Amino acid sequence: MFKITFLNSFSVGLKIGIGLITSKILAIFVGPGGMALVGNLRNFLTSLESISTLGFQNGIVKYVAENQKNKEQLKRIIATVFITLLFVAIVLSVILYFFASFWNNKVFGFNFNYQLVFKILALALPWYIVSIFLLALLNGLGKFKKVIWLNIIGNSIGLLVSVVMILWFHTLGALLAIIITPALLFFATSYFVNKEVDFSGMIRLELFDFKIIKNLIPYSAMAFVSSVLGSIVFLIIRNEITGKLGIQQAGFWEAISRISSYYIMFVSTILTVYFLPKLSKAHNKQETKTIFRQYYKFILPVFAICLMVIYFARFIIIEILFTKEFLPISSLFFWQLLGDIFKVASLILGYEFFAKKLTKAFIVSELFSLTVLYFSSLFLIDYFGIQGVVMAQAFDNFIYFILLCVYFRRSLILR
To answer: b/e for 363-373, b at 16 or more Cβ within 10 A?
Structure first.
C-alpha cells in the first residue's frame, strides 16, 4: 500500500499542480461566469459517462479481479463489455450530434450558443468510453502502477490541451478541453492494455455472453443513481444559484468545488486503485474490517491534517489558484472542509456497496442523501446565500456518514 500510495501521491501532486495552472488561466480568461459554465458541462459529462458506460466500471473491476486466472471467462467479460459499450457510445453520439441545440439549451441555457461543444463531444465519445473501459480492465487486473501512470499521462495531456484551447478560444476552449483530453487518453491506455492481454484477439462476437451483462446490471442501477441523478441535482442547484444570486455566485461555488476536488482526488484514487479490489476479494467481515481499519488508521488522519493546513492557508490558495475577484469564497472554506471530512470518512463504506454488490441498500442511501442535499440547499440558500449551499453539503455528508456507520456497524465493530 505504501508503494502504491507514494506513486499515487506523485500522480495526485502532479494533477494538483496542473490544476493550479489551469484554474489560474480559467480565472483570468473566463472569470466566475465562465467557470460556472465549465461546472455545468462537468456535471453533464458525469451523467453522460455513467450512461455511456452503463455504470459498469466498478463491476468490471470486480469481475476481472475475480476471473484473472479463468482465461476463458475473462475473454467473455472483455468481449461482452467492449461490444456493448461501443454500441451504446455510437448511439449516444448520434443523439448528441443531431440534437446539439437541445443539449446546449438544457446545459448552458438559451443565452449561450455552444452547440459546437456537443458536436465535438459526439465525435469524441466512443474513444472516451473505450478508454474508461480499458482503464477499468487494467485496474481489475491489479496493474495499479500502470493505472496511476495513465493518470499521470492523462493529466499531462490535459494541461497541454487546456492551456492551448483556453488561450485561443477562452470559454469555448475551456469547454472543448474537457471533452478532448479524455478521448486522447485512449491511445496510451490501449498501448498499456495490449502489453497485458491480447485485447484485439478477444473482441469476437461469438464470445458475447448476456449472463455477464445481467450480472453487471446492479452496477448500472447504482451508477445511475449516484452519477446521473447526482449530477442532475448539482446542475439544478447551480441553476438555482444563478437564478437567485447570479452567475458570479454560481462561479464561486464552482471554484470552491474545484479546490475540494483537488485534495479529495488523492483519497478517491487510492480507493479506486487499491481499496476497491481489496474489498471485492474480502471473503468475510473480519477481512473487510481489516481493510476499513487500514483506511481509517492511515488515510483519514493524513487527510484531516491536510485540511487544517488548507484552512489556514485559504487566502494564499485563492490568490494562487484564481484572482482577487474570487476572494469572497474564503467564507466558504470552513463548511466545505467540514463537509469533506465526513465525505472522505464515508467513502470507504460507500465502496463496500460496489464491492459486495449491495444494490438496494446503495440506491436507498443515495436517494436519501440526494434528497437531503437538494432540499437543504434550497432552504439554506434563502437564508445564507451562497454559503447556504456548502452548509447543506456539510449537513448532507454528516447524515450520510452516520447512515453508513449504522448500516455497516458489524464490519466496523467486529472483534
So the answer is: bebbeebbebb
Residue 65 and residue 142 in contact, taking contact as beta carbons nearer than 8 Å: yes
Q: How far apart are the first and last CA of the chain?
A: 23
Does residue 203 sit in helix, strand or coil? coil
Is the distance from CB of 148 to CB of 129 less than 8 angstroms?
A: no
Q: Return the domain boundaries, the chain.
A: 2-413
Give the CA diameter of the chain: 60
CA distances from 84 to 99, 130, 212 (A): 23, 11, 11
Query: By C-alpha distance, which of 205, 254, 309, 345 is closest to 31?
Result: 254
**Alpha carbons 289 and 411: distance in angstroms, whole number:** 5
| Angstrom distance (rounded) from CA 43 to CA 126 | 19
Rounded Cα distance between 198 and 27, Å, is 45
Nearest alpha carbon to residue 62 among 77, 72, 50: 77
**pTM, entire model:** 0.71
Q: What is the DSSP string of 300-340?
A: HHHHHHHHHHHHHTHHHHHHHHS-GGGGGGGGGHHHHHHHH
Give the containing element (helix H, strand E) for 375. helix 359-384
pLDDT given for residue 121 in this prediction: 93
Which residues, including other chains, have CB under 8 Å from residue 133's CB and lie 6 or more apart? 53, 56, 57, 60, 81, 82, 85
Q: Which three cell numbers stand for residue 150?
A: 495513465
Q: CB-hemisphere CA count at 13 Å for 105?
A: 4
Question: How confident is the model over 305-347, as pLDDT tens digits?
Answer: 999 999 999 999 888 888 888 889 999 999 999 999 999 999 8
- pLDDT tops 80 at residue 390: yes
Radius of gyration of the chain (CA): 21
Q: Which of 1-10, 154-163, 209-218, 394-403 has the highest mean pLDDT?
A: 394-403
Contacts of 55 (CB under 8 A, 6+ apart): 219, 220, 221, 222, 223, 224, 227
Distance of alpha carbon 238 from the chain centroid:
18
**pLDDT for the residue 331:** 93
